Amino acid sequence: MCGDGPTVQEWTDERLTWNPEEFGNLTNIIVKADRLWLPELAVMNGCVRKCLRYTIISQRITLSGNVIRIEIQQKLAIHRSVAS
Predict the structure, then answer these.
(1) Does residue 84 sit within a domain?
(2) CB 64, CB 17: distance < 8 Å
(3) Structural domain range at position 45
(4) How confident is the model at residue 18 (pLDDT cuts 50, 70, 90)?
(5) Over the stretch 23-75, which tens digit does the pLDDT of each residue have?
(6) Smallest Cα–Cα separation from 61: which of 8, 11, 3?
(7) For residues 35 and 52, is the Cβ–Cβ distance under 8 A?
(8) How many secondary structure helices (H) and strands (E) does the chain include?
(9) How many Cα atoms are found within 13 Å in the side-chain-facing hemisphere of 72?
């Protein structure tokens, strides 16, 4: 079985907590992917005939250190040719 759709990753990093009163009552922020540690994840039983590329569409950190990362899958075509 193969599926397409968004992938949501969520984890807590205690080092990314803050007191909202010290930062204008800010309760969450959006951060670029290259500015944040990301866990290494891989799909071990991926689809055989599809190659997927991921594009991050949202990455948010809350005041309690909760990181929510949402990705959307974009299909890349794989073409086969046979020479005779």
Answers:
(1) no
(2) yes
(3) 7-76
(4) very high
(5) 999 999 998 877 888 777 666 665 555 555 667 677 899 999 999 988 876 66
(6) 11
(7) no
(8) 0, 4
(9) 3
